[in-house]
């Protein structure tokens, strides 16, 4: 049984604030408390943000037969239909009532890097169907990576590391950075009956930058072990990002920083959001940071490569592609 849902207050970090110590203190408090915070003054224009939402809506307005031509492939690039993903199988009666589209780092098919699980060419709608769509999405992908790297510098300082710790080639020098546009089509959520826009989950990687429209739906649970669980709405912020930490950063920090459960619960209105997931390179070893362990607090997790961890998490939460063999146009 769940208690009533309230709204939460999150710390807000301005990337234009010259007071680095203030930003580090605000971020550290947020990472210890909930793993969620706002980022504003990030340098991405409102014009570009609006263009991504507009282009997103144009794609999701296409007939399903057109969208299924771009069904996600084994590299996790392309369209994900409604119910494709089930993030909380213990509590969901069906999958998530959302559709999405994955856009990763563009790597040509003949590049040796394309052999890695999350690298390769993206799938793109044709210019005849959606002119300028690719141009807008690629511009946003590049801009969001710049913002993510700026946030990662503050996180490094908050963990008593060098500011450029996450800039190394094996980390964010060659990242697995994935843009995912999302559309919740207006299904009324009912947690008591296991119906969600998106089931309860934590994100897999380093950090996630989330831009949303003005429809409230995101909820977080700061203490997943509490009974009953307490869920709080996170208000959208116009032109800014809701940023949350992923499981890899929780592993790196030895659980000092939080990767918090969150879900989407909707009232029947359509909702659009833009998620940007940032993970380190495929071969990066995620293991306890030297500043996060001691004799009284030894490492809680065994080292693991980013690629191995991500591959298992995607496999656990997405439908097998063979399920669509008779549906793809």
UniProtKB/TrEMBL annotation:
Alphabetical list of Pfam families matching this protein: 2OG-FeII_Oxy, DIOX_N
Highest taxon, organism lineage: Eukaryota
Keyword Oxidoreductase set for record: yes
InterPro entries: DIOX_N, IPNS-like_FE2OG_OXY, Oxoglu/Fe-dep_dioxygenase_dom
Fe2OG dioxygenase domain location: 175-280
Statement: the UniProt record of this protein carries the keyword Oxidoreductase: yes
Gene Ontology molecular-function annotations: dioxygenase activity; metal ion binding
The entry's keywords: Iron, Metal-binding, Oxidoreductase
Protein family according to the UniProt entry: Belongs to the iron/ascorbate-dependent oxidoreductase family.
Record's protein name: Fe2OG dioxygenase domain-containing protein
Organism annotation: Zizania palustris (Northern wild rice)
Organism lineage: Eukaryota, Viridiplantae, Streptophyta, Embryophyta, Tracheophyta
